[in-house]
Amino acid sequence: MQASRQRVNARLWAAIASDEGSAKLQDAMIHACADGGKRIRPLLTYASALAVGGSVEQADAAATAVELIHCYSLVHDDLPAMDDDDLRRGKPTVHKAFDEATAILVGDALQALAFELLCADGVGVSSEQRIDMIACLASAAGARGMVGGQALDFEAVGEAQTLEQLEKMHSLKTGALIRAAIRLGALSHDLCSAEALASLDVYAAKLGLAFQVRDDILDEISDTATLGKPQGSDSGANKPTYLSLLGLEVARTKAEELAGEAIKALEHFDEKAEPLRRLADYIVERLN
Fold first, then answer.
1. pTM value surpassing 0.85
2. Does residue 13 sit in helix, strand or coil?
């Protein structure tokens, strides 16, 4: 995990660094992507590539691209018009460290850079596979994925939600990018089979929900210093959560069950999928 984090961090800095354009914008982009994040999505991308017989080198562009999309989403989520948060990864949010206009531009720039990386020569996959990767990330980031889930999240504020409605919202808001991270890792290896992709999609769907359940638990039981962002922000904003519907103990059990179902989806994979299995356990045991 540490090696993968260092790897993607180096590629983030290299991708952002430029002698052209605004120095302020570049500094703000670095601030948005700086150390402090868990880098779970690129970790999943690398682990997925290994699981299907690929390499971390083949998955570099995909891992970096998915983290750029994640960082962009956090910058925009934190804006006053959205969640209005002052703290992210233990530091002032981008609109606090710089200004709101710069934060909007940072998000725009990070999103564009993600697709630039997937289009660039040297990704290490065929042109056809590269198009599939671009389409996968675009779908996960847009109205049928992360952005659509965020819209549902805002519509749900103060409204009673069923468990089915909550799962639909989180499968888009959080789960879509996690599913994309895992699929991109597999697609970075040209020899990945359709059967392997189908099993990884099941793993990813279960893991994405488990991740969000654990997030809801931590929002309730952890503290701001540990989380690196305001504790209790979701309940304070009157947003429906798994805890508000299920209670703490049932939510814990659900997260563990989902992680177990994710691991079961990998039963036909060999030891090369062990990092994915261990990441499933980590996601439901993490402290931030």
1. yes
2. helix
> What phi and psi, each to the nearest 5 degrees, are found at residue 35?
-50, 150
Q: Which residues of 187-225 are buried (b: 16+ CB within 10 A; e: fewer)?
A: bbbeebeeebeebbeebbbbbbbbbbbbbbbbbbebeee
DSSP state of 229: S
C-alpha gyration radius of the chain = 18
Q: Is 37 helix (H, G, I), strand (E, B) or coil?
A: strand
Work out how many domains the chain is built from and give that number. Answer: 1
Q: What are phi and psi of 88, to 5 degrees?
A: -150, 125
The CATH code of the domain that includes 265 is: 1.10.600.10
272 secondary structure, DSSP code: G
- Give the tokens for residue 217: 């638990």
| Helix or strand (DSSP H, E) at 68 | helix 56-77
Query: 263: domain range?
Result: 2-285
Q: Tell me the C-alpha distance between 47 and 61, whole Å.
A: 14
Model pLDDT for residues 119-175, shown as the tens digit of each residue: 986 667 888 889 999 999 999 999 999 999 999 998 988 888 899 999 999 999 999
- CB-based contacts of 81: which residues, under 8 Å, 6+ apart? none
**Could you count the other beta carbons within 10 Å of the beta carbon of residue 10?**
12
